[in-house]
Amino acid sequence: MREKIKIGFLTERMLSGFGVDLVAHKTADYLARQGFKVTVFCLRADRTYKKTNYKIIELKADLARNPIKNQRQIKRLLKRLDYEEIDLWIAESYPFYAATQVMTSPVIAVDHGVSSTQGFVLWKKAGFGYIKYMQNYRYFPKAARIICVSKFIRSLIPENSRRKQTVIYNGGNNYEQPEKKEIENFRKKIGLFSSDLTMLYVGRLKHEAQPYKGVEELTEIYQELKTKEKNLRLVMAGFGDEEDRERLEKAGIIPLVSASKKEIALAYASADIYVSASKWEGFNLPLIEAGSFSLPAVVYDAGAHKEVLGKGAGYLVKNRADFKEKIKLLIEDETKRKEMSRRAKKNSKRFLWNEAGAQYENIIRKALDESKNKVQKQIARGRGNKKGWVDVIIVNYNGKKYLKKLLNSLKRQSYRKIKVTIVDNGSSDGSADYIKRNYSKVNLIEAGKNLFFSKANNLAVRTTSGEYILFLNNDTRLSPDAVEQMLKVARDKGEYMLAAIAPKIYLARRQKKAAGFKRYKEPGRILDAAGIGIDKNGSAFNRGHGEIDIGQFDRVEEVLGASFGAALARRLVFEKTVGPLDNNYYGYYEDIDWSIRARLLGYKIYSAPGAVVYHKHSGTAKDKGQAWKNYLIQANYLKTIVKNYQLRNVFRLVLLRYLGLAGRIFAQDSSRRISVWGVIKIWANFKWSLPHVLRHRFTIQRQRVIKDKSLLKFNLNRKK
């Protein structure tokens, strides 16, 4: 079976009411229906486009108002995305046009235009000027193709990029015609009478946000006309707030603030004339949508209006007086109004999404045929990995007594593409011989000495090649569909920009006391972990540890991290971007450090409540004693904080931990108590590791795309 061509869209948002978002949706949907595998990557999304033929993945990046900083952040994010298996990218908006400089696969830039800065403050004008310069002179020249939404937009691009340009008009067929009864009910609801002649504007309602849209001027024009035309009404529909609603109502206008798709369709169907006082439009979707409802238009002769309005479908006006005169003409001349309505309907048929989609498809195929980077891209993103295979990696140290249950549970997995690798860290209990005798298909690596957790896992990863890596402690065992359930979550979430999956882990041994019960004998109902969270002091915790499972973690959701006692990771992420576990960690916190690093780079980690793992919890490590465990946890916590956190938080958290360790010398609870010598050892370990930690810190801070506050929000998941 031939593999589908993978298309990735890059856009700022996928929200209701934004023109660019609708264009991305319609184009992506068309391509998906034609057999492409389409994924839309954006920074913000609501539920508007949830039920689609393509996947939407929200990217993690903390952006600022400064366009230069935003550009730098997005480039860092794009470098990670470049490793994903995408054959061609379509960049829909700034700052994602930077993909033309970063991506190895061809990038098609869709230019919707940089809006007018009329009425903006100076600093906003400067920001828009910078964006326009970067698009036209730095990004577009490196694009495989440039798609312009109108000839007007094409005329604004420098001539050195003209040979790459193609004009593809957007579609206007976005709404279905409502039933007559629905229209009658809607008119009654908003206060329109049969004798009223209704004008409609669709767009932004807040004048201050986009002054060039002319909302304030349109309001004044309506009030002037209303003094003589008593039956004239104006409906304004679009994004706004309660302040906008009050302002428009005071002006005698009917506001439809943040109107739904259905309400917009009813507004079009209820109106007689479409009006817009906008002084700049790269295309103007509402104008074409209004035409599909047979509404003649009165608009300024600005932007793309001349080419998209169509002859006889409305009036293009030069000034305010002309605007009012043409509205009066349509009010008084019903015959003229009906003729223009007919022409508006006819004109709208020039703008259909299927036709636009077919043009996109043609350009995509040409760009792919001309691409000279396919082999280079395949190497860069690691397509040599075995697709669909899961490499199970187990580090064993004197854990012979646990291996039978674990390996037999792997044999019983419903998902069959599994290979098992065990690193034996110099066990003295005969583990290696036991594996050779009873599990000949297991790839056994005999280290000959204790490499500890990180080094042993990293060694095993280098000897394997599956698409996914399943890290397991030797004292775990899996439910029969655990691997299948983890893979299902990974694929349901779109695969891309995903770092790891955290299964639901139960404590395998019987518990005498949990969650207020005096005795609870049934194993497998008390949670060990449902992913990892983090508190305000940067300390990690197992979500739900010690709680009786009553379904509080049964929803697939984002978590801070995954415990590598049982975690599914993507090989591409582990090898190419986030990197391996830190070999300077000899046990504990290495998985938290890795998860935080993944998060800082913009990756996501999800829980998989349907994937059940049973864990003895410190089954192998208990022989080392609590003091040894405390020593490693505290030392590695300090390394993790200094490596990963912003400087302003590092000093605060290290000081708090210093005071906390001093207090634990006198702790009454023996499991928390640390001796004076123990505290000295912790700080000695930290000091000895500092050069290594600082080297890593430099790299991590240079690559991060999110701030610490995005990590700390997972403190909310401590209790569910």
Give your account of this protein's structure.
With 720 residues, the protein is an alpha/beta fold. It has three domains: 6-167, Rossmann fold (3-Layer(aba) Sandwich), CATH 3.40.50.2000; 180-351, 3-Layer(aba) Sandwich (Rossmann fold), CATH 3.40.50; 386-624, Spore Coat Polysaccharide Biosynthesis Protein SpsA, Chain A (Alpha-Beta Complex), CATH 3.90.550.10. It is built from 25 helices and 24 strands. The chain is elongated.
List keywords for this structure.
Rossmann fold; Spore Coat Polysaccharide Biosynthesis Protein SpsA, Chain A; seven-stranded parallel sheet; 3 domains; nine-stranded mixed sheet; elongated; alpha/beta; 720 residues; single chain
Q: Write down the CATH topology of the largest domain.
A: Spore Coat Polysaccharide Biosynthesis Protein SpsA, Chain A
Report how far apart the termini are.
44 Å
| CATH-level-4 superfamily name of the largest domain | Spore Coat Polysaccharide Biosynthesis Protein SpsA, Chain A
Coarse structural class: alpha/beta
Task: Please give the largest β-sheet.
Answer: 9 strands, mixed
Q: Which CATH class of the largest domain applies here?
A: Alpha Beta
Number of helical segments? 25
Beta-strand percent range = 15-25%
Mean pLDDT: 90
Q: Helicity range of the residues?
A: 40-55%
Sequence-ordered SSE layout with sheet pairings:
Blueprint: E1 6-14, H1 19-33, E2 37-45, E3 55-58, H2 67-81, E4 88-91, H3 99-102, E5 107-111, H4 122-139, E6 145-148, H5 151-155, E7 165-167, H6 180-190, E8 197-202, H7 215-226, E9 232-238, H8 242-250, E10 254-257, H9 261-270, E11 273-276, H10 285-292, E12 297-300, H11 305-309, E13 314-317, H12 320-332, H13 334-348, H14 353-370, H15 374-380, E14 386-396, H16 400-411, E15 418-424, H17 431-438, E16 443-446, H18 452-462, E17 466-473, E18 476-478, H19 482-492, E19 498-507, E20 527-529, E21 532-534, E22 540-542, E23 566-570, H20 571-577, H21 590-600, E24 604-615, H22 626-644, H23 647-664, H24 676-703, H25 708-712
Parallel strand pairs: 1-2, 1-4, 2-3, 4-5, 5-6, 6-7, 8-9, 8-11, 9-10, 11-12, 12-13, 14-15, 14-17, 15-16, 19-24
Antiparallel strand pairs: 17-23, 18-24, 19-20, 19-23, 21-22
